[in-house]
């Protein structure tokens, strides 16, 4: 995004990438392959459990190798698309590892070991993040896997133990549960999805538990041993207490991600990191060294591809002399389970902590015509609006298509809109988005259908 926008603005741009294909974690081993598997496994699950009730009799049979190939094709289509866009925008490409040797100088080491120095007026670090490791636990990507290994398991494990009830744990836990695994999620905190609005997280947990995911909250994993081909996971209460051992076939470590700056030469270049290893930048994304910038997972903020994309565009515009800007108050967040969970803006907990008086309007999908017709009534829309000005401060949605629905809330918030603005906007019937309008009306205690 940064390279293409900079090229659009007339700058001469080169990208240094060590992976064989462009697109980074998101396209190669993150968002795109996981969504392909979530889509395919959801259809498989529906074929098992939902189609019969609609009068469609099928006996689904899983061909995992083919499903993984379907996922790989989705990745290929996307990474080829990026390569095409870079060519079209005349962005030069160096296939190798980059190291900053001085401001304005990047040394590229090619796969064959040869080196070349590239000069640039500005350098943008966009190296992303890597899997956070659990001390003493080796990820072999076979029986102890990160998200990367969990996207390519050769067979459906009978038992899958997930460490971490965050986004990756719940999304990939859902994939393998749908394909037949017994899934146990072990979480350090006493809640799932930390950071998400508390009520929304509790409701999500109930829905996922109903689907068959098991949870052990307030527990930490202290070690992973072997028991023949199986794995023995030692777990103990986070607050201290009696330890236990759980046997499983595959362990997914999903306890977060850490900024990736290895081999970049940042200390030598004088680029300062914070105490969590993130590159420190100012409001123009410039690091402690003039001419070196950083964006995305490698700096502070949510580790989300769309946040990084917007930062990429902003820094390109700043470099071209324009006023690039990212509004961090309006960054949507989506968890692609079924139903999906999407939110934008503040949670109730954040508003309380900030001492902001708010009114809340909630509308359940059990009262939405389209959801009832489709028999997909799990979830709700919750809108939090400033008690005095009615300006919308946060929107939280659990719904079959929450990922698409959250966009209207983001646009509304970007324009500083009120719950009343939303309530007075005509929404097509029958759609799930009518629940957004009804939740907006519920802020003023006048929902019609509930
Ligand atoms: P996360 O930060 O979402 O969740 C990690 C979870 O692990 C937390 O609930 C944390 O309390 C727990 N945890 C930490 N240490 C633990 C321990 N020792 N034992 C048990 N639990 C422990 O991180 P996750 O799921 O690994 O995802 C990494 C990043 O990738 C996140 O920043 C996420 O936003 C991003 N991502 C976003 C997606 C999306 O937007 N749909 C999809 C996948 C990842």
SSE layout and pairing:
Layout: H1 2-8, E1 14-17, H2 24-29, H3 31-49, H4 64-88, E2 92-102, E3 105-110, E4 115-119, E5 123-125, E6 129-131, E7 144-145, H5 147-150, E8 159-163, H6 167-178, E9 182-186, H7 198-211, E10 214-216, E11 219-227, E12 230-237, E13 244-248, E14 250-253, E15 257-259, H8 266-269, E16 292-294, H9 305-319, E17 333-335, E18 340-345, H10 348-353, E19 358-364, H11 369-374, E20 380-386, E21 392-399, H12 402-414, H13 419-423, H14 434-443
Parallel strand pairs: 1-2, 5-16, 7-14, 8-9, 8-14, 9-10
Antiparallel strand pairs: 2-3, 3-4, 6-15, 11-12, 12-13, 17-18, 18-21, 19-20, 20-21
Helix pairs in contact: 1-9, 3-4, 3-6
The protein binds 1,4-dihydronicotinamide adenine dinucleotide.
The secondary structure category is alpha/beta
The number of E-state strands comes to 21
Averaged pLDDT: 97
Largest sheet properties: 5 strands, parallel
Radius of gyration from the CA trace? 23 Å
What are the bound molecules?
A: 1,4-dihydronicotinamide adenine dinucleotide
- Helical fraction: 25-40%
Q: Compute the separation of the termini in Å.
A: 43 Å
User: Can you list the strand order of the major beta sheet?
Assistant: 7-14-8-9-10
Strand content: 15-25%
Which word captures the global form?
globular
**Weakly predicted, low-confidence segments:** none
Query: Helix segment count?
Result: 14
């Amino acid at each position: 995004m940064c390279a293409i926008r900079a090229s659009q603005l007339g700058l001469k741009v080169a990208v240094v990438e060590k992976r064989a294909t462009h697109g980074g974690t998101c396209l190669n081993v993150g968002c795109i392959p996981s969504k392909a598997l979530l889509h395919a496994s959801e259809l498989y699950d529906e074929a098992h459990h939902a189609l019969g009730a609609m009068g469609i009799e099928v006996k689904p049979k899983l061909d995992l190798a083919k499903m993984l190939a379907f996922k790989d094709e989705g990745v290929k289509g996307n990474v080829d698309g990026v390569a095409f866009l870079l060519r079209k925008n005349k962005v030069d490409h160096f296939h190798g590892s980059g190291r900053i040797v001085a401001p304005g100088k990047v040394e590229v080491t090619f796969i064959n070991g040869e080196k070349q120095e590239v000069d640039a007026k500005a350098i943008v670090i966009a190296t992303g993040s890597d899997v956070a490791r659990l001390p003493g636990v080796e990820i072999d990507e076979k029986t102890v896997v990160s998200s990367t290994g969990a996207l390519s398991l050769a067979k459906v494990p009978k038992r899958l133990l997930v460490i971490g009830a965050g986004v990756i744990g719940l999304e990939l836990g859902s994939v393998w549960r749908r394909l037949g695994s017994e899934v146990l999620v072990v979480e350090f905190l006493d809640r799932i999805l930390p950071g998400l609005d508390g009520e929304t997280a509790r409701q999500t947990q109930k829905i996922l538990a109903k689907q068959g995911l098991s949870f052990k909250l307030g527990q930490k994993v202290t070690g992973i041993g072997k028991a023949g081909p199986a794995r023995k996971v030692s777990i103990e209460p986070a607050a201290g207490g009696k330890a236990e051992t759980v046997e499983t076939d595959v362990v997914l470590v999903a306890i977060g991600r850490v900024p990736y700056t290895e081999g970049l030469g940042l200390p030598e270049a004088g680029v300062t990191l914070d105490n969590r290893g993130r590159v420190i930048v100012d409001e123009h994304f410039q690091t402690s060294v003039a001419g070196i910038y950083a964006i995305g997972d490698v700096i502070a903020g949510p580790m989300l591809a769309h946040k990084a994309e917007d930062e990429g565009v902003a820094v390109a515009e700043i470099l071209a002399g324009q006023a690039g800007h990212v509004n961090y108050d309006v960054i949507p967040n989506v968890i692609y389970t079924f139903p999906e969970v999407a939110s934008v803006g503040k949670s109730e907990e954040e508003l309380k902590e900030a001492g902001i008086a708010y009114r809340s309007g909630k509308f359940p999908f059990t009262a939405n015509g389209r959801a009832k017709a489709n028999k997909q009534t799990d979830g709700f829309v919750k809108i939090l609006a400033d008690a005095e000005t009615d300006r919308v401060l946060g929107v939280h949605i659990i719904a079959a298509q929450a990922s698409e629905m959250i966009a209207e809330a983001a646009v509304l918030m970007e324009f500083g809109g009120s719950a009343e603005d939303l309530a007075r906007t005509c929404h097509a019937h029958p759609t799930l988005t009518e629940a957004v309008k009804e939740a907006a009306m519920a802020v003023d205690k006048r929902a019609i259908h509930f």
